[in-house]
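Lysine transporter LysE: structure, please.
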Amino acid sequence: MFDSLLNGMILGFGVSVPFGPVNILILTYALRVFKNSLAVGLGAFSVDMLYFFLLKFGLIGFLDNAIFMKVLAVFGFVFLSYMAFLMLVKKNKDLNLKNVEFKENLFKSYLKGVFLNGLNPFVIGFWLSVAGIAIKESHPNAMVIGLIVAILSWIFALSFFVARYKDFFSARIIKFINIISALIIEYFAINLLYKTFIG
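Here you go.
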């Protein structure tokens, strides 16, 4: 049982630690407000849990459809590109963490996390592959618990530590982070289309 739990945690960290679009958005939000950053992560996590329950009750198979995946990829590309655009057009005055109040409500931040994960066909692909791995485990429920613990731990740790040490970031550094983050997110957007339609 412990081996299954550990395997689930390793898989969870393996999925959540690499810097994809969700982690980039969590990081940029954590530079402003911890709770909004956490809301983004929990929104993305909610989609993971939705797919997990669909998988558990054998309902995720219908999502493994070429046309559905292509439509999802197009919407994902548009949403990711929009997020990248918003990061690039941030005004310098908005990057001053000490003087500007962050006004986005938590539900809006949560929805961004939902859409970011929900419009990514690779998330569906991941959960479909997890099904194959979990079936081979002697204690599949323990593996899923490990997976959930690892993902939630990473979301909290990333949000907390970036928010805790945000005073070390000047407006100039944050502008640089935003530009790099926008480029990374746009890379994922283009890669999403490439892998879906060409690769």
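Notes: The mean pLDDT is 82.
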